[in-house]
């Protein structure tokens, strides 16, 4: 079911260039966005600009922002090679700065207990920062041979983390040792002839990762237009299926709860998914009951058809997606190549 954008709200008047990232607290009462030229904007739930921080002297960009779940007055921002910590009650300067990455940071994420922050960068490395001790805890290196674009802590497994990058690799780490637990090359996984030939024109770079709340699923956004779904319910993860719904690269995957998924891509389309509907497909039953998977072509197409529950045609390529829930209703923040952010209600 397609949706129009007419009733959607806009957060505008803050940024002068394309918005690269956006985050919110759990109910959307505080929204923070980042853009080129080191522009950081703080917004209220009614889409009003509360504060803007601009550092025109810095030849860089704010590529990722992350609000603390324990104290939503505090947030983290990746600016060039530095991760800065801010308190919204006093934005004159950062509270803390972590300069451990050698090249531009692409994403920062916090673990569940906010003991650690992970920052992945253009060198292909992931820096694990101890927030309690305010020091570099571990460096994950020598596995990505190109830019590391995304990183995601594993839910309910405090020492495990995933990273993905422009080498088409998904790496599963135990960062306490550090040790690689598993490695998946998306080109090898998707080496079979595609039923949608145009998808294979672009390599399956890993742009973004998201894990379901119960840690059962890991979703990977790929440049070839696929969304790779991994079963992460067991110790060793394995690819479960591939969703085919975007006609260009997928830039964002975001879980809402255990089975609801939102994806966005360079085709300016946002798609809504319910992975619980996989149980309704014949191919899922076949695999579950006798251990034999249905043919790859049929199985992925059937799961895609059953699980895709909605489509929203956006007006620009998607840079970042963030979901929050207010009074039982779900809302989606969309950062794109324009200088405004779209706020839309979604039904998942």
Automatic annotation (TrEMBL):
Keyword terms, alphabetized: Repeat, WD repeat
Keyword Magnesium among record annotations: no
WD repeats: 243-283
SMART domains: WD40
Keyword Ribonucleoprotein: no
Superkingdom of origin: Eukaryota
UniProt protein name: WD repeat-containing protein 53
Protein source organism: Dreissena polymorpha
Highest classification ranks of the organism: Eukaryota, Metazoa, Spiralia, Lophotrochozoa, Mollusca
């Amino acid at each position: 079911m397609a949706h129009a954008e007419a009733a959607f709200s806009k957060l505008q008047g803050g940024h002068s260039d394309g918005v690269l990232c956006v985050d919110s607290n759990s109910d959307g009462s505080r929204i923070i966005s980042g853009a080129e030229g080191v522009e950081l904007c703080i917004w209220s739930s009614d889409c009003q600009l509360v504060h803007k921080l601009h550092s025109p002297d810095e030849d860089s960009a704010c590529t990722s922002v992350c609000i603390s779940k324990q104290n939503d007055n505090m947030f983290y921002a990746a600016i060039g090679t530095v991760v800065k910590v801010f308190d919204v009650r006093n934005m004159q300067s950062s509270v803390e700065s972590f300069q451990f990455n050698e090249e531009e940071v692409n994403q920062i994420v916090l673990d569940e207990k906010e003991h650690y922050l992970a920052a992945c960068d253009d060198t292909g490395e992931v820096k694990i920062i101890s927030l309690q001790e305010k020091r570099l805890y571990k460096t994950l290196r020598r596995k990505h041979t190109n830019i590391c674009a995304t990183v995601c802590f594993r839910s309910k497994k405090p020492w495990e983390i995933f990273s993905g990058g422009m080498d088409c690799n998904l790496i599963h780490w135990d960062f306490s040792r550090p040790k690689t637990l598993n490695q998946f090359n998306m080109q090898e996984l998707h080496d079979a002839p595609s039923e949608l030939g145009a998808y294979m024109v672009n390599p399956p770079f890993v742009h973004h990762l998201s894990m379901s709340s119960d840690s059962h699923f890991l979703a990977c956004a790929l440049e070839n237009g696929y969304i790779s779904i991994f079963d992460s319910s067991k110790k060793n993860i394995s690819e479960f299926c591939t969703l085919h719904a975007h006609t260009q690269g997928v830039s964002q995957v975001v879980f809402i709860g255990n089975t609801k998924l939102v994806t966005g891509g360079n085709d300016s389309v946002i798609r809504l998914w319910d992975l619980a509907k996989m149980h309704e497909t014949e191919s899922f039953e076949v695999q579950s009951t006798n251990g034999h998977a249905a043919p790859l072509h049929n199985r992925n197409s059937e799961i895609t058809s059953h699980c895709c529950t909605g489509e929203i045609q956006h007006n620009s390529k998607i840079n970042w997606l963030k979901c929050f829930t207010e009074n039982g209703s779900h809302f989606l923040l969309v950062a794109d190549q324009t200088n405004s952010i779209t706020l839309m209600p979604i039904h998942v």
